[in-house]
Specification:
It contains seven helices and eight strands, in the order E-H-E-H-H-E-H-E-H-E-E-H-E-E-H. It is of the alpha/beta class. Strands 1, 2, 3, 4, 5 and 6 form a six-stranded parallel β-sheet that branches. The protein starts with 10 loop residues before the first strand and ends in a 28-residue tail after the last helix.
């Protein structure tokens, strides 16, 4: 018998970035809200464009005086402001949503091989030092290790263009900075991305099929295994956080590297950023 964990999930946050309510991205967001709500989840949506969310990380994110105005350091100043309850109201509200959420879905159209600027601004401003990560609490020991996160996005290019011999390059490499460098860095259990390949270039029937597949996946979303990343304790802080020699030696005879980033000069593991269990 298969038991879907998603039925026990209480809260979800969808960070959504699209200008049009009539877009395919909006339809994907609406499908997630509908399916998760039907399963008893409380779903909040941060509609970044509708909110006119400010993507710029500046001293205006801090209420009151900053510690060092002459040599302003955003990370340190916002960490202090977070500890003292002096972050701006919009950041405090987004951090509240994130703290409450069991799962976070980033829904967006891919712009220039990454998230839109307004969503990157949400990441830069909301995931402040101290709240989302510290030098001691990151990666597999990260602050959000009890939470799940995933990317759900549309592309302008076909799947073949994002293949290992495609003109855009391997999608696994494209996703590494987002999934490892942001989500996994903060400790999230990262689910395989939901990729809607070039919906603008296919028929309405094919787009409907895409959305139906997404609805089906949402039924058991949190029953999925997350993507695999190399555990933090595999790296030696005394050697500049390089892979421990014993692990590197053990992996020497393998055909593939450990991950897209920690590849040890070998071929990268195929599909490791788009499929779990790889």
């Amino acid at each position: 018998m298969v038991v879907y964990v998603v039925s026990a999930m209480k809260k979800a946050l969808i960070v959504y970035a699209h200008q049009s309510a009539g877009s395919f991205t909006a339809a994907a967001k609406d499908a997630a809200v509908e399916v998760l709500t039907a399963q008893g989840c409380q779903v909040e949506v941060s509609d970044l464009y509708a909110m006119k969310f400010n993507p710029s990380a500046t001293a205006d994110d801090i209420t009151g005086e900053v510690k060092d105005a002459e040599h302003f350091h955003y990370g340190e100043e916002t960490m202090l402001a977070w500890k003292e309850g002096r972050l701006s109201a919009d950041l405090t509200e987004e951090q509240r949503k994130l703290s409450a959420a069991d799962v976070v879905i980033f829904q967006f159209p891919m712009y220039w091989f990454t998230v839109p600027a307004i969503m990157k601004g949400w990441i830069d401003r909301v995931l402040t030092m101290g709240f989302a990560y510290t030098s001691e609490q990151r990666y597999s020991q990260g602050i959000f290790k009890e939470k799940t996160a995933m990317l759900s996005f549309t592309t302008g290019s076909s799947e073949s263009m994002f293949s290992s011999n495609g003109i855009n390059g391997d999608i696994n490499i494209t996703l590494w900075p987002l999934q490892n460098g942001i989500l996994h860095y903060c400790g999230f259990q990262v689910l395989a991305p939901q990729i809607f390949w070039a919906p603008h270039h296919i028929s309405s029937e094919a787009r409907s099929t895409m959305l139906e597949a997404w609805r089906t996946r949402l039924q058991g979303l949190l029953g999925e295994m997350p993507l695999s990343f190399t555990p933090s304790d595999s790296f030696d802080c005394e050697r500049g956080f390089q892979l421990k020699e014993v692990i590197e030696e053990k992996h020497k005879s393998e055909d593939f590297g450990l991950t897209v980033g920690t590849h040890l000069g070998k071929r990268i593991p195929p599909n490791s950023q788009i499929k779990s269990g790889v």
